[in-house]
User: What shape does this take?
Amino acid sequence: MKGKILVTGGTGYIGSHTVVELQNAGFEVVIVDDLSNSTEAVVDQIEQISGIRPKFHHFNMQDLGLLDRLFEQSGGIDAIIHFAAFKAVGESVQKPLIYYRNNLLSLVNLFDCMEKYGVNNLVFSSSCTVYGQPEKLPVTEHTPRMAAESPYGNTKIICEDIIRDYTKANPKIQTIALRYFNPIGAHPSALIGELPNGVPNNLVPFVTQTAAGLREQLSVFGNDYNTPDGSCIRDYINVVDLAKAHVISIERLLNHQNESVFEFFNVGTGNGVSVLSLLNSFEKATGQKVNFKIVGRRAGDIEQIYADTTKANNVLGWKSDTTLEDTLLSAWNWEKRIRKID
Ligand code: WQD
Assistant: This one.
């Protein structure tokens, strides 16, 4: 084995795809997840895809005692990928303390255990949300972070600051933060994918559920923005390409190739895509028409953001190479499988 990796939040959407790629790359994986936004069946699907069943521990990382016991029992963890966090933007506005306690305390507990058990490598799941609405596009890693629109986004900013301050005080600890743009799509096997609880907040699961007949109609939140077709622009990144960026980051840390104790990379495609053009691409890729209507803007939405991926391409040595249409088709194939649509 190339090493043992603890993946927190490993049964979640991005976590599960990353576990598959880690196991494909020859790593041994241990998952901890509280199943607040996923199910244990994902472990079966990971095994079905990669032929290897990762160890799975079911608890929330706010419990330092349980986390400590996991480190003690697992022995010899070489690195950690930390996905575990609550991530519903709207819910974070309603319940800020739950978000601050969970997302911040989980990271602090993790650092406590890393120090106690001598685990020195961490890849952190961050988000382009730290940039807010950038003045200049595309966004580089030098683009200043802006005050977040939501407590969720603020926890990402604060977690990055905790990592910065902690690695300054403990330079043994080597870290990489990956700032995701908009992850979409599903594994080509259609055995794992995005499965939001209840009504999806995010665009692509709402599109696929509308195409599958679960939702009556998609509401497009605004077409009066200052963009070519008036709808918002985002950088939609294929989830498997995103997962591979984590494997490359882990190898960078294990091979001591990182150039500082806290590196961060924009992980996107570099292409800005509007909501309306994404709908066109979905219909072209799948042959499925999506019933939608234009409604008012959604509070908190930024107008446009997409990445300058030069640093991830040239320094990390990673590039997203899956087309938007192939990615949207993978999302549709996943939706069809879980809804048993031929
Ligand atoms: C994309 C575009 C909407 C739903 C959020 C988080 C971000 C990250 C990704 C975790 C926007 C429009 C959406 C719908 C619509 N999550 N839309 N109708 O808001 O860019 O980013 O998810 O890290 O942190 O903020 O993603 O998919 O919600 O929206 O018109 O039913 O689709 O207005 O322009 P967003 P999204």
Q: What stands out?
A: The radius of gyration is 19 Å. The mean pLDDT is 97. The pocket of WQD is lined by residues 87, 89, 127, 129, 180, 182, 201-203, 206, 218-221, 232, 234, 275, 298, 301 (CB under 6 Å).
